[in-house]
Amino acid sequence: MTQTATDSAAPAALRRRRKRAGRLHIVVFLAPAVLIYTIFSVYPLAESLRLSLYDGLEDGSAVWIGLGNYATLLFDPDWARQFWNAFSNNLVLFFVHMVVQNPLGLLLAALLSLAPRFGGAYRTLIFVPTLLSVVIVGFIWELILSPLWGVAETLLGAVGLAGLYQPWLGLESSALVTVSLISVWQYVGIPMMLIYAALIAIPDELIDAARVDGLSGFAIFWKVKLPLILPTLGIVAILTYIGNFTASFDLIYSIQGALGAPNFSTDVMGTLLFRTFFGQQLQLGDVHMGATVASMLFFIILVGVTIYLALVQRRLQRYEM
Amino acid sequence: MNTPVRTARARTSRLRRISGTASVHAVLLGYTLIAVFPVFLVMMNSFKDRRGIFGEPLSLPHAGTFSLEGYATVLSEGSFATYFGNSLIVTVASLFLILFLGAAAAHALAEYRFRFNALLKIYMIVGIMVPIRLGTVAILKLMVDLNLVNTLLALILVYTAQGLPVAVFILTEFMRTLSRDIKDCARIDGLSEYRIFLEVVLPLIRPVLATVAVFSMIPIWNDLWFPLILASSDATKTVTLGVQQFIGQFTVNWGAVLAALSIAILPVLGLYALFSRQLIAGITSGAVKG
Hints:
The structure holds two protein chains of two kinds.
Chain A: H1 2-20, H2 24-51, E1 54-56, E2 62-64, H3 68-75, H4 77-112, H5 119-126, H6 128-131, H7 134-145, H8 151-158, H9 175-187, H10 189-200, H11 204-212, H12 217-228, H13 230-246, H14 248-256, H15 269-278, E3 279-280, E4 283-284, H16 287-317
Antiparallel strand pairs in A: 1-2, 3-4
Helix pairs in contact in A: 2-16, 3-4, 4-9, 4-10, 4-13, 4-15, 7-9, 7-14, 11-12, 13-16, 15-16
Chain B: H1 4-45, H2 50-55, H3 69-77, H4 80-111, H5 117-125, H6 136-145, H7 152-175, H8 180-188, H9 193-204, H10 206-222, H11 225-230, H12 239-249, H13 254-289
Helix pairs in contact in B: 1-13, 3-13, 4-7, 4-10, 4-12, 7-10, 8-9, 10-13, 12-13
Family (chain B): Belongs to the binding-protein-dependent transport system permease family.
Organism (chain B): Chelativorans intermedius
Transmembrane segments (chain B): 21-44, 88-110, 122-140, 152-175, 196-221, 254-275
């Protein structure tokens, strides 16, 4: 009895004392994180959106032109060609990741979740490329696919396919898909891990119940496990979407340069932003157009996230228990 | 007491199980080779002379082809020790700030009731969905105004801002599950709110801090974008940028290129060998929570 009495009395007393002691500590705990985040992340983003509404003058001042820069980017023949080319290349990149990387990740995760022997070793080794810098991965594949070294050709020859070899990275028709597949090779570890974690979190009773009902192993995967991990597949999809529009810069810049060689066939929004902002060859750098490209990227990502939250997330909730 | 029919059925089901297991291993082993072979190939050839690299790229280095000239070129031409130092300073300092400031903010959001608590949490978390790179134009302007261009501090501040949203999100979720009793006991003992955070809460969340560290570390160490834009001077180059530019200059010297790649890969693989268990546990547990 006395125990419960003190238990209920103590928090009340504490609460009074805390109120007296002031709330300064809350500010001290929050301020550093909120300030750094606001100054170096939120403010620059807002400032970029603002800069995209101005045009620079010769004397260094800026003049408000409303959505003029967006009109230029979307309708000026020179800009529009670059923008739609980069945008559609990003869509191809996204598509390749969705049809190759994520299904491959799902397959590997499903096999790993059967808990085979050496499962830990497979998992650890398949994740190795994900840890490496994109720059390094890019160069590794540039060397391997190079006609100078001939390794790719030799390896294809070993399985009797030497005739298929082409300098894929150098050909306009195949460069983009090749770069996408290199990125798939590097990042397949992430969907594999996320899906694997979701699969092993499914309670055993559910699987047992399905087995008692007479479902085969494959049917259990298709009808029981897959619906349960749909939220994870949704997260994988939106992460792929965001990464595709921003992170693809590093790989393309390393392998193909800021011009998205050959002949802009691998140009993406990231390289377009870099080029617009800093200038390249005959084109001068332009802060305001750079901000406009960055803001377009922001809206593109916003659209993706909104669709994900509104549509996918709501539909997925029905499957949750 | 098995009837012949039952043993036969048992045998076929065992056979099917064995062939199923074999195909599982075939797929996993096959993909593991695809994942690891390119990395192995580069490291193997970095120990060969020019003739060995081009003449027999697929065989291990032997007495006739073994050579360290690539490494000699890299060590004499590039300042990789400086680049490594820079990457290390930037990564460790950013991680410290992300974890410490993130934990403090998460503690405040999870522990105290105050006005705008929920709003502030959403504000901090929105950054997960919006990549910081989109603010690059204004970040560079800001760094010029603050006189921080070509300093490591510029990178540290940007990476801290980039890592905080995920840190605050994961840590707040976890701190909500901590029992209040332990903190109230500490209050009865007369500990200040600061000491409660430092001496009671921080030790309790150490495993989650490791998860957050793993999530935040890889993109910082591997980033090319911000070092290229904010700190590309020779004294502030990180390894990723250093390797990128070194290889750009030495494209004809394959020995040097392969050696530079290997030098950049080795420490990552070494660290991975030491911490892969924690890293993978972190990713899987984080995924379950998220």
